[in-house]
Write a structure and sequence with these properties.
Order of helices and strands: EHEEHEH
Largest sheet: 4 strands, antiparallel
Distance between the termini: 24 Å
Strand content: 25-35%
Mean pLDDT: 90
Helix content: 25-40%
Number of domains: 1
CATH topology: Alpha-Beta Plaits
CATH superfamily: Transcriptional regulatory protein pf0864 domain like
Structural class: alpha+beta
Number of helices: 3
Low-confidence stretches: none
Number of strands: 4
CATH class: Alpha Beta
Length: 86
């Protein structure tokens, strides 16, 4: 699963704290990407790759640690490097 949220009203410290909490919860990967939001506002995209059994735990961290209005949940197929080379 990939979980994502866009933020344009969170401080760098709040984003860093959220990322630390997300990593502590045991996802496969956490990314923070700078993006441009509506009306040219700077923002960030926080994206988390996780196993299918974990999304609710991670979504609650997004909700508790950021001013998110919602989290996108998308099922994805993950292919490891060894599988891609075969």
């Amino acid at each position: 699963m990939v979980l994502e949220t866009n933020l344009d009203d969170a401080s760098g410290a709040a984003i860093g704290h959220c990322v630390e909490r997300l990593w502590a919860a045991g996802p496969l990967d956490v990314m923070v990407v700078p993006i441009q939001m509506k009306k040219g506002r700077p923002g960030v995209l926080i994206s988390v790759q996780t196993r299918r059994a974990m999304p609710t735990k991670l979504e609650s961290i997004f909700s508790l640690e950021t001013p998110t209005l919602g989290v996108r949940r998308m099922p994805v197929v993950r292919i490891g490097a060894c599988q891609a080379a075969a």
